[in-house]
Specification:
single chain; 329 residues; alpha/beta; 8-stranded mixed beta sheet; 15 helices; 8 strands; 13% strand
């Protein structure tokens, strides 16, 4: 089971970084931009506007989105979670049965409450859905700095083969069959990163930040267990690992957006960081799904209330700090 010809759909920062990873692993990779104009710019400049000053590896072919995507051995969908269905539908009709289609977005679809692999399964029925997630910033990965992630598929042999195909000395994918656990970690941590950013923006101190991340992880864990995730996945790279990274660095759009909220900026969806912060879209879906399972997510709910304008940052903080005392767990 070899994967030598790989397509990456989505020429933003993460898609470009992943194409670089695959080129370094010695595979033939094509990076697909949304349209011909975008592809021409990337081809001519060999530099992504999202990753300035980082040259795109000459081994990466660049092309506009076309039916040719479906002819590859495996396909990575590096598009935002709320656009993943559109991308999967575009490749679905020409896709050979059993072709791995790997979601690289961290979120849950609004309206349907579907996880990314479920969206792929519905939209590209011939696909073998998989998910790639973990503590990794696009700029670090594009520069070839060390990173480790989790790659999950229901078929362990496929997951292991994909990990071998993408792996290199600077990029280490661990394989798993816990698809749902990997998806939940990636989606939930973005919401909690907004909360962590609010704490930082409000200047509440390192102790408060540590408490927020710890109690936030408890929420992620409760939610994950309710939806069938394995404990070792939630405490691994795609869960706790990604949460630690995203809640501590301004390279995270979610954390940066939270900092802006903490400093008193209005939670407008038109805000530049909000457009790219997956947690803004995931937060209400996460809370709705948790409520249906009877899972308590006070931090995530506070984020939703702030984003909806139902409460102020200070009111949300006061509500969290005056919750009834209880045993830790």
């Amino acid at each position: 089971m070899t994967f030598n010809r790989i397509a990456v759909v989505g020429a933003g920062a993460w898609g470009t970084a992943l194409a670089s990873v695959i080129a370094r692993a010695g595979r033939h990779v094509t990076l697909y931009a949304r349209d011909r104009a975008g592809a021409d710019v990337l081809r001519n400049r060999r530099e992504s506007p999202r990753l300035p000053a980082i040259r795109i590896d000459e081994r990466i072919a660049i092309a506009p989105m076309s039916a040719d995507v479906a002819s590859h051995d495996a396909i990575l969908l590096a598009v935002p979670s709320q656009h993943l269905r559109e991308a999967a539908r575009a490749i679905g009709p020409a896709l050979a049965k059993g072709t791995p289609v790997i979601a690289c977005a961290k979120g849950i679809e609004r309206g349907t409450h579907k996880f990314m692999t479920e969206v792929i399964a519905e939209s590209a029925r011939a696909a073998l859905p998989a998910i790639l997630s973990g503590p990794s910033f696009a700029e670090d990965v594009a520069r070839g700095l060390p990173a480790a992630v989790t790659l999950a598929a229901r078929d362990e042999k496929v997951a292991a083969a994909l990990a071998r195909a993408f792996g290199s000395p600077a990029f280490r994918p661990y394989h798993s069959t816990d698809v749902r656990g990997v998806e939940i970690g990636g989606a939930a941590k973005n919401v909690l990163a907004i909360a962590a950013g609010i704490v930082a923006g409000r200047g509440l101190g390192a102790s408060a930040a540590a408490a927020l991340v710890t109690r936030g992880f408890a929420e992620l864990f409760r939610f994950g267990k309710a939806f069938g995730a394995r404990a070792e996945t939630l405490t691994g790279l795609s869960g706790l690992g990604d949460l630690i990274l995203t809640c501590s660095n301004t390279q995270s759009r979610n954390y940066s957006f939270g900092i802006a909220l903490g400093k008193g900026q209005a939670p407008s969806p038109a805000h530049a960081d909000a457009k790219l912060a997956e947690g803004v879209f995931t937060a209400p879906v996460l809370v709705e799904m948790a409520s249906a399972k009877g899972v308590d997510l006070p931090i995530a709910r506070a984020v939703v209330d702030i984003l909806d304008g139902q409460t102020s940052v200070d009111e949300a903080i006061e509500t969290l700090l005056t919750r009834p005392f209880r045993a830790e767990g």
